[in-house]
Design a protein that fits this description.
2 helices, 21 strands, 328 residues, mainly beta, Jelly Rolls, 2 domains, single chain
Amino acid sequence: MSKAAELAALIGSGQAQGDRNLIINGAMNVAQRGTSGTSTADIYTVDRFALGHGSPVNAMTFEQSTDTPDNFKNSIKVTAGTGAGASTTGYAILRQAIEGQNISHLGFGTSAAKAIILSFHVKSSLTGTFGVSIRNQAGNRAYGGTYTISSANTWEYVTVAIPGDTSGTWPTDTGTGFNLFWDLGAGSNYDIAAGSWTTGTNMFGVESTVKLTETSSATFFITGVQLEIGDVATAFEHEDFGTTLRKCQRYFKKSSGLADDDAWTNIINVIELGYMRTTPTITTTVSTGANAVFTAFVGLGGAPVHGVYQSTANNALAQAYIDAAAEL
């Protein structure tokens, strides 16, 4: 095929256009909540990526790392705790939920469903066949794929082809369209065979794959995550930091901390809420002073437009923060 024909084919598939990547923050550059932590049942790491574990799997630690392949600044590093098998209901996963509005063009659940392909850079202290899966929000349709890590502690580029699903229910609203899971230690109740769409219940693991959390202190790094239409992966779509931050802030925003003093009077902090996916859950943090309150100002249509963090008295609050979460 000529170069012109190849380009025409890419344009026709949508792959040559901007914003072809369904993943947000795939280069792991935005980390509004912080750059390290310990897994719970479900906790966000760098923006849009969540890490979860359940007993008997032990907690994992995570960090935004600067250990990367060429042309990337950041990665996510996951370190297993004390090694433990997942048995039937234990689990360990890294995931990203993708909004339904962003997958409507895939046509999942119809005869026009399009194939997609996942690509990313990965590095682990373990080698072998690892599992990744896509699952609808109802949890009853899933596809298990595999990729191979050939050399320990070495960055490798991998791809996983996923055929379009002509069955099942795939929401295309502001809720979750589907979840993408990396299986780090799923129990047998959650495992499915690789290579085909499966109907079942709460599926996100892949049979006969390496389970990272069975090995004490095993490490797993990932960056350059891209999910796009087609059956051939294209080069990672780097975008400027501001664009990635704006996309992340549809789901989570953290205001900067501002000091209160005699000059500032009462107003402490402001955060814009209008662009967020849904009415956010607000969490406020004050380092000193018990008289702080948060007020959300409502705009046309009843949606909060912005919020102001105030103190009811000039009581020298040192720092005040507003977290607004509208996560999937």
